[in-house]
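Long-time lurker, first post. I've been practising inverse folding by hand and with some scripts of my own, and I keep getting stuck on stretches where the structure tokens seem ambiguous. Below is the full token string for one chain I'm working on. Before anyone asks, I'm not after the true native sequence, just a reasonable design that respects the backbone. If someone could post their per-position residues I'd love to compare against what I wrote down in my notebook.
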């Protein structure tokens, strides 16, 4: 039987928007306000969620639970849910590696739940056509059906638990990984005094890349959320026998940008680069040296 009551654990911007799609489809959505911030409580209530106060009470009333939390907290939350004896469908929608997803599945199964692996691609689904929710595992189609006709396109993959997380990891390995790489390239070019020359070359051979390399400024205030995601992606590459260093370095970049977490306004690129040069420090790395500026003739 298709679940009609869903618990969202814990509704940040993405979780609140995802749950709002369920509310709009006529389902009852529960959440637990205990220990959550005022902003989280406000988002959940605005989206039409019913507050059950504690996690235990929210789970008692739900046939399915969807976990939407930072990647580093995903396994701990699954263990908490398993400890409460939840016996419904547990959907992990976090940006974790396939191996972590499988561990989460084993954890909730030990507590009596069935497991669906999920991966969200796109922004919070405020409008239609922007966001896909990939699902895998035995009950993937059942969960996908809950979002039929909503702003969120749910796609059940023909694969076991871990497949949805693998797809999400591959997608974000490029999008968020490339954002970090381009930011580091701009920092290196500025440090070596060749930034103007690089931008001139990009205009000729890589049109649009200058703008793409500045995207990190708009993303800097939420970069802290991506530290764990980059580490999970690195672990995914490692597990496949592929080099994971690309995304461990991306995690270092985003760790440095954690300084902008509570900023009122998005920083400029110069601020981002300055923080990166100060904050990204690896053992044995040489200290920063004074930049020099090299232009191009006629520029």
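-- Answer (accepted) --
I ran through it position by position. Result:
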């Amino acid at each position: 039987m298709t679940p009609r009551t869903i618990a969202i654990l814990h509704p940040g911007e993405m979780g609140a928007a995802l749950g709002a799609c369920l509310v709009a489809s006529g389902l009852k959505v529960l959440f637990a306000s205990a220990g959550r911030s005022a902003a989280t409580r406000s988002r959940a209530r605005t989206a039409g969620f019913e507050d059950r106060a504690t996690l235990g009470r929210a789970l008692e009333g739900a046939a399915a639970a969807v976990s939407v939390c930072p990647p580093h907290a995903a396994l701990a939350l699954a263990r908490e849910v398993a400890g409460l004896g939840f016996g419904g469908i547990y959907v992990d929608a976090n940006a974790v590696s396939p191996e972590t997803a499988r561990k989460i599945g084993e954890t909730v199964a030990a507590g009596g739940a069935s497991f669906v692996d999920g991966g969200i691609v796109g922004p919070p689904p405020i409008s239609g056509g922007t966001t896909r929710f990939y699902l895998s595992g035995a009950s993937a189609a059942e969960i996908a059906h809950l979002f039929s006709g909503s702003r969120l396109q749910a796609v059940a993959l023909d694969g076991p638990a871990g497949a949805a997380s693998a797809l999400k990891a591959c997608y974000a390995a490029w999008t968020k990984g490339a954002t970090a790489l381009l930011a580091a390239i701009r920092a290196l070019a500025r440090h070596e005094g060749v930034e103007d020359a690089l931008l001139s070359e990009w205009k000729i051979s890589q049109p649009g890349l200058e703008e793409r390399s500045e995207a990190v400024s708009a993303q800097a205030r939420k970069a802290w959320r991506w530290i764990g995601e980059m580490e999970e992606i690195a672990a995914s590459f490692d597990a496949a026998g592929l080099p994971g260093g690309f995304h461990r370095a991306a995690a270092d970049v985003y760790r440095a940008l954690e300084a902008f977490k509570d900023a009122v306004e998005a920083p400029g690129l110069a601020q981002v680069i300055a923080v990166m040069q100060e904050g990204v420090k690896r053992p044995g790395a040489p200290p920063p040296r004074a930049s020099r500026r090299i232009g191009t003739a006629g520029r």
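A couple of notes from the structure itself: The beta strands are 5-9, 28-31, 50-51, 64-67, 89-92, 114-121, 132-136, 153-156. The chain has a mean pLDDT of 92. Happy to go over any region you disagree with.
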